[in-house]
Amino acid sequence: MKIKTAEIVMSAVAPKQYPEGLMPEIALVGRSNVGKSSAINTILGRKKLARTSQNPGKTRTINFYLINEEFHLVDLPGYGYAKVSKTSRAEWGKMMETYLSTRENLREVVLLVDIRHEPSNNDVLMYEWLRHFGYGTIVMATKKDKISKSKLQKHVNIIRTKLKMNVEDVVVPLSALKKEGIEKVWEAFTKKMDLE
């Protein structure tokens, strides 16, 4: 998919702040240090649209990016960061559950995991949660450039096994540094949204 336009249009903490209309949405979620902002910038071909930070856990709202004036890419708050208070974590959890359980526009929620490591217990819980809501058919494995090509399939298999993924579900390795995996990401996304 060619990205002609990409802009952030809304940061929300409640349904009344979500964009209006029935434009399809694909949401991204992952641990606070998984490289979600870098992944968003990479797949959109932008350098600084999603703010990256040395301090994980900066995304505290649901951020809606309007892409090609056709659909929204939605950045959900990261989870599992120790320096965030329990109260904040509970608020984010409620905010995300409300979005996941009520948003009619939502076509898929993509879990991001670090390809170098076995998915954490938090990753497994999040994936089970997504499955509960009928999502989770695509997993994006970030930081592909950090492992050798010979070990790629082994790491993909570890992710699939740990998350108990179905055979037809997709793991897409992505490298923000080398800009690898972008086409496969969009191939998976466009199928979900019936876009050309």
Structural write-up:
- By secondary structure, the protein is α/β, with parallel strands linked by helices.
- It has one domain (6-193): 3-Layer(aba) Sandwich (Rossmann fold), CATH 3.40.50.300.
- It has helices spanning 36-44, 86-102, 121-132, 149-163, 182-193, and strands at residues 6-12, 25-30, 62-67, 71-75, 106-114, 138-142, 170-173.
- A seven-stranded mixed β-sheet has the order 1-3-4-2-5-6-7, with helices on both faces.
- The termini are close together.
The ordered string of helix (H) and strand (E) elements is EEHEEHEHEHEH
How many β-strands, per DSSP? 7
Please give the CATH class: Alpha Beta
Number of domains: 1
- The CATH superfamily is P-loop containing nucleotide triphosphate hydrolases
What is the fold named in CATH at topology level? Answer: Rossmann fold
Uncertain runs with pLDDT below 50, 5 residues or more?
none
| Largest sheet, strands/sense/barrel | 7 strands, mixed
Secondary structure: helix percent: 25-40%
Distance between the termini: 8 Å
**SS-based structural class?**
alpha/beta
Give the percentage of residues in beta strands. Answer: 15-25%
Average predicted confidence as pLDDT: 89
How are the strands of the largest sheet arranged?
A: 1-3-4-2-5-6-7
Explain the layout of strands and helices.
Layout: E1 6-12, E2 25-30, H1 36-44, E3 62-67, E4 71-75, H2 86-102, E5 106-114, H3 121-132, E6 138-142, H4 149-163, E7 170-173, H5 182-193
Parallel strand pairs: 2-4, 2-5, 5-6, 6-7
Antiparallel strand pairs: 1-3, 3-4
Highlighted features:
Rossmann fold, seven-stranded mixed sheet, 21% strand
